[in-house]
Write a structure and sequence with these properties.
Two copies of one chain form a homodimer. The first copy, chain A, is mainly α. Helices cover about 80% and strands about 0% of the residues of chain A. In chain A, helix 9 runs antiparallel to helix 10 and helix 10 (about 175-190) packs antiparallel against helix 11. Chain A is elongated and about 65 Å long. The two termini of chain A are about 35 Å apart. Chain A binds a DNA duplex (18 and 18 nucleotides) through helix 3.
Chain lengths: ~210, ~210
DNA sequence: GTCTATAAGTAGATAGAC
DNA sequence: GTCTATCTACTTATAGAC
């Protein structure tokens, strides 16, 4: 059972660094210093490996979303959940490198991922509505339609911001990646906020930075 | 010479509909009702095919960008160029389905694409600065920093909005795709605009819609 | 220009010995 | 549990006939 776990961890590392599609089962076995046959003993193939890694990603995300929905979190908690979501995305970033191809290749993941996105989307919409109701965001023009578009944009950041940064040759570590993503969301929302609220958000950012450094 | 052109057009169609990575040289030859050997006579391989298609995309985009920069276009023209850019992106959408993998596979394209993105990025920044100077956008808080982030977000829409729509199972035709993209940009900029300017933008949208329908 | 035939390379998968 | 050996399937690429 320990070997199985080891294979998973090393695979995740390899996938994240080199891309899932660039690695064959043999490559993974070589890196692990075991034979391909042995790898196939533990996992029926790359299929089972990727699916299990996705499982872990999904569980982590759903935990966060449910926490948010059920426990009636404060907005601060909601907001800090954003950080953890991007942390999560970074840790499983191989998955977001070429999502379309990956979902096509591993079709059992596709419906699950779509469901996850829908959940996430509703979560974001609640976050925005919450910010609006609490007066953190205060703008009469923020109609339901506008909120939908903002939600889409934030979802786009979830699913493709990492790819975009790679595309622009910005090789960011976890921390810088998360920070850039949150900054991007703040840019989206900034115009709807007063100066006090903006300062609150920026304080959150700094807080998170210090927490991670210390 | 006519067959060569025919191959290019059919390949573009196939790539757009099924994804470049899902098609082998044999598949393309079959669709064309010619032999693989014949295909290899005209193009050294998928490599040469894809590169030549990219070339066409690049030429089209650069034409637009240069028009904008040199001819000192009015802001209206600038804005309408956005439509045409997304039109272009849609016509070569296979390219944006999994950009990272594609650029890794066809390495001669990578530096060219990056250069193109830089140009486009500067172009967008000029558009935003222009809107600011002309008073279409009127907000004292729009510092240089904020403009950079907005530019990034718009670039993200250029490179990944199509992928995102596919991911969310929204199968849009060219027209609906362009409209959704422009709406997304408008949502970004709306809070910085007065009601009059917003109406102008929406008028642009309707105009474009009618033009394309009629 | 176009075809057939075939080589060469690679990924995925399994059987059977240890 | 782990290994070696091997097989299938697929794609790219080329040589040589028509």
């Amino acid at each position: 059972m320990k070997r199985r776990e080891h294979i998973l961890l090393v695979s995740l590392e390899l996938f994240n660094n080199e891309g899932e599609s660039n690695l064959s089962a043999v490559d993974i076995a070589n890196e692990l210093d075991i034979s391909p046959g042995n790898l196939y003993y533990h996992f029926k193939g790359k299929d089972e490996l990727v699916t299990e890694l996705y499982q872990r990603f999904e569980v982590g995300v759903e935990l966060l979303l449910h926490e948010g929905l059920e426990a009636k979190s404060t907005l601060e908690e909601y907001w800090l959940h954003l950080y953890v979501l991007f942390e999560h995305i970074y840790n499983y970033r191989f998955f977001f490198r070429n999502i379309s191809d990956l979902l096509q290749k591993y079709q059992s993941i596709e419906p699950r991922f779509r469901r996850l996105m829908e959940q996430q989307s509703r979560w974001v919409e609640q976050l925005l509505t919450g910010l609006l109701e609490e007066g953190v965001i205060a703008d009469p023009n923020l109609a339901a339609e506008r909120i939908k578009h903002l939600t889409d944009n934030i979802m786009l950041l979830f699913t493709h911001w990492f790819q975009f940064q790679v595309l622009r040759n910005r090789k960011l570590g976890q921390h810088d990646f998360i920070q850039s993503a949150i900054l991007q969301i703040m840019t989206l929302l900034a115009p709807y906020m007063g100066n006090l609220q903006l300062q609150f958000m920026e304080a959150c950012l700094e807080l998170y930075q210090r927490e991670k450094q210390g």
